[in-house]
């Protein structure tokens, strides 16, 4: 990976993205990670896999190694057929151990409707190797979950029509979670940015133009208070552009 900002040098992704991330007094530090085509599309035929490559996958694994929890929307879980996060190895694993983090990050899914399939691989985790996923849902959604997920996930029910992302992060903070990695999709990203919860944005620009009518990395209504970030780092590998932004 060739870093071109703040100074030109060759770095491994773990050194490019590594920084001291400190939780807030009421919520964890939130990293948002997304990939998009040159023209802004976030998927090809419904998944992000067609946009990526080995360099992007290495960055994803690196960012996951920093996180205590990976936060994702139910639509992305279904589309990407989410699996259990791998256990960080080599240097990533060593640094994770020094930070006294669990062996792997825990998954947390946001599903207001409770429309999830218990056969998705992410729910097959051996409890000896890590905690079962968290599912954040509403009272209505919980009716669709408890029977099928009682032993496969920990279900957190909010007494509201929608899952409030501020309350989700407050709950994670109460579980002593310091760093959360958000992996989309665009609807979840919109909720997080609307609530001014994103501390860091890691955006990968794929060297592809897809055409069509993409939604962008945060789809929804125009934000009532647009988020502003400053560029903290810029790197390139295999024609991909890796942008690291911090919230102002």
Give me the number of helical elements. 8
Please give the number of β-strands.
Answer: 11
Give the strand line-up of the largest sheet: 2-1-10-11-9-3-8-4-5-6-7
Most strands sheet: 11 strands, mixed
Strand content: 25-35%
Number of domains: 1
Structural class, judged by helices and strands?
A: alpha/beta
CATH hierarchy class name? Alpha Beta
Cα gyration radius (Å): 17 Å
What is CATH's topology name? Dihydrofolate Reductase, subunit A
Mean pLDDT, nearest integer?
Answer: 92
Helix content: 10-25%
Which homologous superfamily in CATH is the superfamily?
Dihydrofolate Reductase, subunit A
Tell me, briefly, the overall form.
globular
Helix and strand arrangement:
Elements: E1 2-5, E2 9-10, H1 13-17, E3 29-37, H2 54-66, E4 69-73, H3 74-80, H4 90-98, E5 106-110, E6 134-138, H5 139-142, H6 146-149, E7 154-158, H7 165-174, E8 179-182, H8 186-194, E9 200-206, E10 229-237, E11 240-247
Parallel strand pairs: 3-8, 3-9, 4-5, 4-8, 5-6, 6-7
Antiparallel strand pairs: 1-2, 1-10, 9-11, 10-11
Describe the structure.
25% of the residues lie in helices and 25% in strands. It is an alpha/beta fold and 248 residues long. It has a single domain (26-85, 104-238), classed as 3-Layer(aba) Sandwich (Dihydrofolate Reductase, subunit A). A hairpin with a 2-residue loop joins strand 10 and strand 11 (240-247).
């Amino acid at each position: 990976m060739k870093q071109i900002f703040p100074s030109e040098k060759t770095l491994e992704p773990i050194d490019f993205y590594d920084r001291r991330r400190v939780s807030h007094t009421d919520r964890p530090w939130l990293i948002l990670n997304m990939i998009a085509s040159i023209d802004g599309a976030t998927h090809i035929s419904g998944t992000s896999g067609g946009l990526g490559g080995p360099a992007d996958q290495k960055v994803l694994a690196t960012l996951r190694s920093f996180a205590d929890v990976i936060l994702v929307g139910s639509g992305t879980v279904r589309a990407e057929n989410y699996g259990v996060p791998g256990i960080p190895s080599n240097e990533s694993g060593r640094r994770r151990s020094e930070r006294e983090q669990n062996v792997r990050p825990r998954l947390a899914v946001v599903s207001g409707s409770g429309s999830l399939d218990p056969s998705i691989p992410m729910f097959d985790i051996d409890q000896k190797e890590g905690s079962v996923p968290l599912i954040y849902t509403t009272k209505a959604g919980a009716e669709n979950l408890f029977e099928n997920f009682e032993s496969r996930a920990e279900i957190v029910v909010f007494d509201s029509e929608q899952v409030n992302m501020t309350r989700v992060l407050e709950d994670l903070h109460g579980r002593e979670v310091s760093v959360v990695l958000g992996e989309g999709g665009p609807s979840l990203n919109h909720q997080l940015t609307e609530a001014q919860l994103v501390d860091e944005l890691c955006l990968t620009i794929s060297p592809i133009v897809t055409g069509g009518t993409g939604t962008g990395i945060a789809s929804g209504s125009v934000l009532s208070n647009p988020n502003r970030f400053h560029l903290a780092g810029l790197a390139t590998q295999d024609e991909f552009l890796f942008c690291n932004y911090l919230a102002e």
